[in-house]
Amino acid sequence: MSNRDSFLPPIDDGAADHLKPGLKLPAIALPATDGTEICLAEIPDVSVVIIYPWTGRPGVANPPDWDVIPGAHGSTPELEGFRNWAPDFAQWEVRLFGLSGQTTEHQRELVERLWLPFPVLSDADRHFAQALGLPSFATGGVHYLKQLTLIILGGYIKGVIYPVYRPAEHAFELLGRFELRD
Asked: How much is the pTM?
């Protein structure tokens, strides 16, 4: 068994139970990696918001105890999956956004390295996360968002996936929901 196989799967701790369909998103503009500010509450289209804790950089150590925190790993493979399936989501007129508590500068490096075709939003000041009560955890004195996916329509939550069990396959599994709709 490799070290990667020993990472703990996420646990449904009920921390997202309050994020119900019909809940209005807060009107908070977030800086995006494309240089704009985006207010998710103002987007009229169907959007998928991929919320993740942290993405590492080559040669930079993970935060303390990262390997023993259930669900901490998998952000990069999850984002790569959405990158790979982005044209299929576009076919269904679904906009994609990443979102984490990392700074926009950190996220820009990630977007360039992974060739992400969608903007990643920074909630480094945690205003959006606190307004929605997004699930989080702390390690090394830093708070991180837990992996979670919001499906939104017209500024309202339409669906929530929490926890994300298989980050690398998540985009493909979620795409099936859109392909099955009328």
From this structure: 0.93
- Asked whether residue 157 is domain-assigned, the answer is yes
The two structure tokens encoding residue 179? 């392909």
Which one, of 33, 73, 43, 103, lies nearest residue 168 by Cα? Answer: 73
Find the CATH number of the domain harbouring 39.
3.40.30.10
Count of structural domains within the chain: 1
- Joined together, the tokens standing for residue 78 give 């999850």
**Residues 8, 134, 24: CA angle, nearest 5 degrees:** 140
Instruction: Note whether 45 and 155 are within 8 A (CB).
Output: no
pLDDT tens-digit map of 148-159:
999 999 999 999
pLDDT digits (tens, 9 = 90+) for 1-50: 334 444 667 889 999 999 999 999 999 999 999 999 999 999 999 999 99
